[in-house]
């Protein structure tokens, strides 16, 4: 009886050791699986953060693109409105007053009106109707009035109504004659010809 109990105790001890090793292996496997799952979760978390950052950038770019598109539509509508207004507005014609020679100063706009009468029929301006706007270059407003009045005198039925800086965009005069748009180059034969001597010189 005692021997049987001893065998049973020994058998239970062996089973306990085997069971303990088995469950330890199972526990170790669960721990390793848990570590792998945690690592995957961290990787997924990083991927989610990267995706969230990329989405934020894309959303910001999309918002900026929408703003630019809205601004472009507004600019286009404003341009169309301005085009319609310009098409509906009366045409303003400008008459070039100066010759194509360099002249210092800035561009001016002079409004001249012709009042035809029997005494001014011989001026050759029968087709002058209404107000003409002339473009010319000069240093001061006074010079503009003097030049315009000299070409279109009051006694011939002309009247200078207004002298203002030119309102046509893009017109400018360069202070350096060599760079002036209105500088007329000399012919090659004149450029190569020696300068004339003063009268009486040797």
**Structural class, from helix and strand content?**
alpha+beta
Q: Which sheet architecture does the biggest sheet show?
A: 4 strands, mixed
Unreliable stretches covering 5 or more consecutive residues: 179-188, 195-202
Major sheet: arrangement of strands: 1-3-2-4
User: What form results from the Cα inertia axes?
Assistant: rod-shaped
**Beta-strand content estimate:** 5-15%
Total number of β-strand segments? 4
Count of DSSP-assigned helices = 3
Order of helices and strands: HEEEHEH
Cα radius of gyration in angstroms: 48 Å
Helical proportion, percent range? 40-55%
Kindly describe this structure.
- Keywords: Coiled coil.
- The structure is a single chain.
- This protein has about 200 residues and is α+β, with helices and mostly antiparallel strands.
- Among the domains are: about 35-90; about 95-180, no CATH class.
- It is about 50% helix and about 15% strand.
- It has a 4-stranded mixed β-sheet, covered by helices on one side.
């Amino acid at each position: 009886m005692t021997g049987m109990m001893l065998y049973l105790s020994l058998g239970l001890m062996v089973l306990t050791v085997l069971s303990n090793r088995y469950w330890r292996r199972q526990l170790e496997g669960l721990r390793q699986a848990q570590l792998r799952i945690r690592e995957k979760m961290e990787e997924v978390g990083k991927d989610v953060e990267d995706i969230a950052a990329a989405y934020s950038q894309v959303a910001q770019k999309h918002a900026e693109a929408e703003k630019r598109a809205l601004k472009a539509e507004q600019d286009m509508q404003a341009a169309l409105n301005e085009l319609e207004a310009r098409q509906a507005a009366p045409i303003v014609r400008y008459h070039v007053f100066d010759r194509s020679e360099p002249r210092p100063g800035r561009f001016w706009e002079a409004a001249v009106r012709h009042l035809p009468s029997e005494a001014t029929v011989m001026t050759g301006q029968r087709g002058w109707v209404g107000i003409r706007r002339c473009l010319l270059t000069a240093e001061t407003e006074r010079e503009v009035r003097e030049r315009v009045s000299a070409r279109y005198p009051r006694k011939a039925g002309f009247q200078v109504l207004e002298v203002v800086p030119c309102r046509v965009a893009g017109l400018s005069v360069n202070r350096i004659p060599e760079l002036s748009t209105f500088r007329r180059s000399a012919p090659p034969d004149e450029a190569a010809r020696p300068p004339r001597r003063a009268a009486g010189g040797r």
